[in-house]
Amino acid sequence: MKKNSWFVTIATTLGFAFLYIPIISLIIFSFNKSKLVTVWAGFSTKWYAKLLNDPQILGAAWISLKIAFLSASLALILGTLGALVLVRFRRFHGKSLLSGMITAPLVMPDVIIGLSLLLLFVGMEAMFGWPAGRGLTTIVIAHTTFCMAYVAVVVQSRLVDMDESLEEAALDLGAKPTRVFFDITLPVIAPALVSGWLLSFTLSLDDLVIASFVSGPGASTLPMVIFSKVRLGVSPDINALATIIIVVVAIGVVIASTQMKPKKVS
Amino acid sequence: MDTPQKIANGAKPWIEQAETPFIRISNLTKKFGEFTAVDNITLDIYREELFCLLGGSGCGKSTLLRMLAGFENPTSGRVEIDGQDMANVPAYARPTNMMFQSYALFPHMTVEKNVAYGLMRDGVSKSDAADQVADMLNLVQLSEFAKRKPEQLSGGQRQRVALARSLIKKPKLLLLDEPLGALDKKLREETQFELINIQESLGVTFIVVTHDQEEAMTLSTRIGVMDQGEIVQVGEPHEVYEFPQTRFVADFIGSVNIFEGRVSADATDYVRIHSQEGDCDIHVSHGVSCTENQKLWFAIRPEKLTISREKPRGKFNFVKGVIDEIAYQGNLSVYRIKLASGKIVRVTKSNRARHDGDAFSWDDNVYVSWDEAAGVVLAQ
Ligand SMILES: Nc1ncnc2c1ncn2[C@@H]1O[C@H](COP(=O)(O)OP(=O)(O)OP(=O)(O)O)[C@@H](O)[C@H]1O
Ligand SMILES: [Mg+2]
Fold this sequence. Notes:
Chain A has helices at residues 6-29, 46-52, 55-88, 95-101, 104-107, 110-128, 136-161, 164-172, 177-206, 209-214, 222-231, 236-260. Chain A is mainly alpha-helical.
């Protein structure tokens, strides 16, 4: 192999440092004894203990997870259907307009999505009483809406790459079309489904702006709680919380990447 | 009822006409928008035939095959398999199986599962299916690879998995789209014979698409030559080679020298043609339906020509030229001979002796001659 030049080495080191030093310092300071976030006063896990006894944070975390799970799953189904229509159906009127429109939420500012959804929900409630008030349901709907676009894009590119003769071969061997979908299409695009779901899950967990617009009393997500706490001053228990989230996400990423790699023979 | 004689034993139902054809394609047309991919094809294929569709790229071979398999709806015309009209039969219910140009192996299933897929869809019990799969893998010599995924196989092994998968349901009709396209020459030849063996032992009817004319010659009972969506000639391999009906067929199958000329004498048992570009008079020892002075083409294969230094006797059937190039190919040599008109004539000569003292060399003046029954006269 060619020896890496010093430039590449330095650039890589700097790049990774830029990405990971903030995260590492956050993790380190989550074990800080002192209440001051910037002064190291010895090792302690008391902030983790405090976190576990904080009903507000635990409640918000639970709500966030529920929302993320529900909206990722809904977005997966709807986004996949959208991608199937856009890729597999013969040309129909307005197809290119539709495929352009499905990616719009990717570039639309969150503020606009949040505001327009809020207006929609208020209008709907006034017209036929659903959704009654705002809360978990409206956040799930909102998150599904923009996550769906991500799923559609990811699945669409996988479907385009898929050799259509695979499906024809299954048909040819006697499988009916629905059977072909579950036996062939689904397993072949499964990696895209997994990454689409994980992407949606993290996007939903992460979202602050849209959720703030469409949530109501009793439905504060974790980012909303953290944000409101931080406005009163950064406290070390938030560092502890962030560390836990990082660990969970890291485990998720590792699992996802081992799932997606093609298995090798022993 | 007496059972018809097997094709494997030398029967030729397309001549005898005693059997009803197994596949009847009538006036089949497929248009993609304005473009006609398959143009009004009518063709009968008999049980246990190994029929080759031969033609250049884009002439509509795959499209024809896909209409037989049910992946493409004909614009007009009819397909009948074993007496049954296929118009409203979906692909999954047809008595056909197809081996795809790209093999189309299911990437997430093992070799075993790939091959068993068709049986499972038919509701064959697990243990029965396992037995049949084992037999089939044995036949294509892949038993030791049963647990592998397609991505862990070589091109040739994948091709055999695809073949096994399409054969396992013992379809009445097997459609193979360029089955050997991805194989190297040696493996290709081996597999050709394997295909013929399998075909004869299972008694399946094969339609094989290829654009390799040698492959078509080796494999088939009959060849259908396609050009721009039409079938231009159907016949046994030696028929299409020795008696092409058009210049396209003559040129497409093997190599050929074509002399353009006009009829100078037309009798019941012979015809004479004068060719300007060959500066020669051609005498053909059989009658041809033509009129005096009509424009015709005389086609003759390179291996039917003889080179000599002396002027041949008589005044017919030879041309005079200079050796322009010699290509040594081991078993034979190809001579390109340039005539006075600038036309190039190809002659092949088999290399019988290891060293030929009297060999021709570049720039020799030679005569090229042929037998009066060696060529064919083409009207188009
Ligand atoms: N779905 C389609 N839409 C439009 N045109 C098509 C379609 N499928 C095939 N064609 C056209 O029909 C013609 C015949 O295609 P086909 O695939 O049958 O060729 P082929 O004889 O199999 O060629 P090859 O030897 O390259 O595989 C081609 O010109 C191709 O461009
Ligand atoms: Mg083709």
